[in-house]
Every structure is written in C-alpha cells, then in structure tokens.
C-alpha cells in the first residue's frame, strides 16, 4: 500500500505473464507500460478466492477497459 500512496510517481513495465501478486503490484502503480505479449490477471478470482494485496479495491477503481481485460484473463 505504500507504493500506491507514494509521493513519487511509480511505473510498472510488464512483459510476459503477470499474475497474482505481480498484477496487484502493477495495479498499485500510477502507470503501467505493458508489452504486446503481456498477460495480466488475478488468478485467485478464477478459482473463487479474493486477492490478498488489495487487488479488488484497485481493480474497482481502474478504468473499465483495463478492469475488463484483467477479469477476462486476456
């Protein structure tokens, strides 16, 4: 949570598979730069569990297109 409320702008650069904690880490950053081959997702939600690192709260505040992409595991 310190990352989310930091006074310093934060950027996550992703490439490849970014699931679980990596996805939650990216959600807490101010900006995310994703490679074309990046796959982001909260795999916990796929098996009926709630993400532990505040992923649900950040996902609810995310733009609809980003939230849709993460929830559909595309």
TrEMBL record:
GO molecular function annotation: lyase activity
GO biological process: fatty acid beta-oxidation
Presence of keyword Lyase: yes
EC numbers: 4.1.1.41
Primary enzyme class: lyase
PANTHER family (alphabetical): ENOYL-COA HYDRATASE, MITOCHONDRIAL, ENOYL-COA HYDRATASE-RELATED
UniProt key word Lyase: yes
Keywords associated with the record: Lyase
Name of the protein in question: Crotonase, core domain protein
Pfam families: ECH_1 (PF00378)
């Amino acid at each position: 949570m310190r990352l989310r409320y930091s006074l310093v702008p934060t950027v996550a650069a992703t490439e490849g598979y970014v699931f679980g904690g990596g996805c939650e880490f990216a959600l807490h950053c101010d900006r995310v730069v994703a490679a074309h081959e990046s796959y982001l997702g909260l795999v916990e939600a796929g098996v009926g569990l709630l993400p532990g690192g505040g992923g649900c709260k950040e996902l609810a505040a995310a733009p609809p297109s980003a939230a849709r992409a993460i929830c559909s595991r595309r």
